[in-house]
# Entry
Amino acid sequence: MAPSADNKLEYFFEFIGSSATICIRPGSDFSPTLPRHKRVLSLLAFGAIVENMLLRATELGFVGESSWLPCDDLSIIARVCFSKNIEISPDPLATAIPFRQTNRQIFFRGAPTSMQKDLLAAEVQKHAGTRLLWLEGDKRWRALKLIWLAESERFCSIRLHEELFSTIRFDLGWKDTCDQGLPPAALEVESVMRPMFKAIRHWPLMRCLSAVGVHRLLGLRAGFLPAWQAPALGIVLTSLPIEEGAVAAGRSFERLWLRATIDRLVLQPMAASAVLSLQEDTDLYSSKKCRNSLRSEWADLFPGEWPAMVFRMGGMLKTDLPSVKTGRRLLSSYER
Ligand SMILES: Cc1cc2nc3c(=O)[nH]c(=O)nc-3n(C[C@H](O)[C@H](O)[C@H](O)COP(=O)(O)O)c2cc1C
# Structure
């Protein structure tokens, strides 16, 4: 039930019965040669998965400990060792796991209170090396420009365009949900825009439209506008090395999201501006200009740290609920 960037993350659980250990093995698409932003997105999701496992274990009377990317077996992402502990009390965050979901409604209403903001920041701080910052004033304006830049780039770079549209299940129409990939209904595209949105999945058309600047308009709708109007805009930062930081931030972000769910707050992750800034020059997914702008602006805003996740937030009671809930594959299909 944990989130992952495009709801298509491939991985398997391997149960080592005698030692009450569960290993997570990634699918073949997770390799050391993956472009940096894709690897970071996957590690953020693996962090969220393990956080959910550890929280759920407390409800079953277990404590767990995770070790990451162990050197003795390079095909394992994480090993989680559980032990029975009669003194453990269930972590209340676990109760929110089935209810957490992404909300992409364009308008969020109702801001989190300052007490709620402090509680959310405290959840992030539980994983050393990560922190939550609420973007306000000048920092918020500068972040909004980066969100616009990165979301626009997703429509004008052939590789990012492929990455985005290959995950959207247009075969479902605009009402149904699915257990893998992104159902179009979850994207909350306005009815009048749907035919156009479906048509631009064809790269030759999108390339022509980009030549006259349409990607900037799409980036405005997909990123700038929803983030600009959101009652709160936050960022999870880390000072850790890239892979370690991605795992820790994934775990922190999941705790934040579960706490927000308990507090009846809604959230949409907006990862592009953060993760595209991490690309290496050889990755060729975004233009050099875009990559350098993101990199230098974030470094100027937060020296000594890197942005793992940007998100917008509002109040569930005042905001429309998401049109559909994105599904998951059967649990048995993850077992090996
Ligand atoms: C690392 C990560 C990055 C994500 N980036 C985005 C994003 O940029 N935009 C967005 O709308 N959703 C984003 N999501 C949300 C996922 O699309 C969502 O979790 C997934 O489709 C499953 O849906 P659910 O969260 O409703 O269960 C991200 C999630 C994760 C974990």
